[in-house]
Amino acid sequence: MAKLNRNQKCLFSIHLFRGVMELFTNTFLTSHIITMTADNVLTGGLYNAAIFYIAQYVCYALFYLFISHFVKKSNRTIFLQLGIIVNLALVICLVFWAEVISSWVILVGVMCGISNALYYAGYFVMKNEFAHRVSIKKYNILTVIGVNIIKIVMPTVLGFFIDSSSFAHISIYMTLVTIAQLVISFFIMSHKRSGSKLQLFKFYRALKKDEEARSKIKYTYINALLSGVKNTYKLLLTVLILFAFKTNFGLGLFTSISSVVTMVLLILFKIFDNNPKTNKFAIYIIIGFLPLLSSIALIFWLNEVTLVIFNFFLTIAIYFSDYFGSSERDAIIKHIGKREYIAEHQLSIEIITCFSRVLSYFVMLLMGLIGNLTVFKILVIAFMVLCPVKYIVMYKQRQIRKEYEIINEAEMNGQVVEVKKEEIKGNN
After folding, report:
1. Is residue 332 part of a domain?
2. I want to staple 178 with a disulfide (CB 3.0 to 4.6 A). Which of 88, 117, 153, 283 is the partner?
3. pTM score, two decimals?
4. What letters, b where the CB count within 10 A reaches 16 and e where it falls short, cover 196-205?
5. What does the buried/exposed string (b/e) look like for 380-416 if buried means 16 or more CB atoms within 10 Å of the residue's CB?
6. How far is CA 299 from the centre of its chain?
7. How far is 53 from 34, CA to CA, in rounded Å?
8. How many C-beta atoms surround the C-beta of residue 194 within 10 A?
9. How many domains does one find in the chain?
C-alpha cells in the first residue's frame, strides 16, 4: 500500500478525531437528549431526538449548498477549520449547559448542521484532491479501519464515564479532542484552482447529454437516497437499547462488541474480496437481509437476546455499507471522466442524502407523537426492508468500479482494453 503524503496523513488524523466527536454527538448526545426529555423514550425522548436531527440536516443541506460556491474557489482548509471551531463552540456549551439541553435541541441541531456542513464541504473535496485515482480506495480503506477501531474502544469508555460522572464532565475531554483537530489542520497545504467556481447546473447538463455517464452515476445517487434512511438506524438502535437496558454503559458496550466482530469480518471479507471465485453478490444479499430477518423477531420477542442479534446484524450492515460505498462514491466521478465536477458531485450526494434523512426523521417524529412500542417495531421492520435494496444497489456500484479498475490498469500499462461483462463478473 502506497504511503500517505503529509496532507493525507493530516486529513486522515483529523478525520479519526472527527470519528470520536461524531460518536459523542450522534450516539451519546442523542442518548442524553432522549433520557433528559422524558421517562418514556418512545414519546418525548424520541420526539425531541427527531427534532434535533431534522434541525441538523435541514441546516446541513442548506448551509452545504450555500458554502459550496465558496469552497470551489477558495482554500478548502479554511472551511475545515471553521467546521472544527463551530464544533468546539458546541462542545463548550455542553460543558456548561448539558443539563438543560432539552430546551435547546433545535439550536444544538443547527450548530451540529453548520459544523458538519463546513467540515464535510472542505473534507470531501480535499480528500479527492489529495488522493490520486489509484490511492483513493486505499485511503478510504484506511479511514474505515481507523474509524472502526475508534468505534471498538471509545463507546464503552464514553458510556462508562458518562454514567459514572456526568455528560458535562466528558464534554471537557471532547473539547481537547476538538482542539487537537484544529492544531493538525494548520499543517495541511491546500490549494484552489484559479478561476474555479461551482457549476451545478452545467454538471447536470453534462450528465443529461452523456447517457453512458448518467447510467453509471445513477446508482451512486440512488445509494445516497437510501443512505439517508440508513442514518436513522443508529437512532433506532439507541432507542431500543435504552428502552431495554436504561444505561449509556450498556449502549457503549453493545456498540463496542459489535464493532469488534464487524472489524474481524471486514478483514475476512478483504481476504475473500481478492478471490475471484468468491460469490460477492451472495455476500451482499446475506448482509442486506440479516437485519430485516432479525428485526421481525423483535415484534414477537423484544428481549436481550433478540436485541443483541438485531444489533449485531445491523451494525455489520452499517459498517459494511460504509466500507463498500465510500470508494465507489469517490471513484465514479473520475470514472465517467468528469473530475472537474468533484465539488458538484459531492454536493449532489449530500443534498440527496439530507433530503432522505429529513424525511426519515420526520417519520420518527410522528412515532414519538404516537409513542406505541408495537408501532415503533413495525417502523423498524419497514426501515429494514430498505437494507437489502441498498445492498443490491451497492453491488451495481461495485460492478461499475470493477470496470473502472480494469480500464485504469490497462491504461497504466499502455494498453487499449475492451471491458467484457464476463470479465467484470469474474472480478465480482
Report:
1. yes
2. 88
3. 0.75
4. eebbbeebee
5. beebbebbbebbebbbbbbbbbbbbbbbbeeeeeeee
6. 28
7. 12
8. 6
9. 1
Q: Is residue 223 part of a domain?
A: yes
Q: Which pLDDT score, from 0 to 100, does residue 87 have? A: 84
Nearest by Cα to 229 from 62, 41, 362: 362
Q: Which three cell numbers stand for residue 108?
A: 444544538
- Count other Cβ atoms within 10 Å, centred on residue 122: 27
Q: Residue 152: what residue type?
A: I
| Chain segment 81-119, per-residue pLDDT in tens | 999 998 888 877 776 776 666 678 888 889 889 999 999
Q: Which amino acid is at 313?
A: F
Q: Report the pLDDT averaged over residues 402-412.
A: 69
Give the domain extent around 299.
6-186+202-426
Question: Which residues, in sequence order, are CB contacts of 131 under 8 Å at separation 6+?
Answer: 8, 138, 139, 330
The reply to whether 21 falls in a domain is: yes
Output the CA torsion 340→341→342→346 (10° steps).
Answer: 180
The CATH number of the domain holding residue 233 is 1.20.1250.20
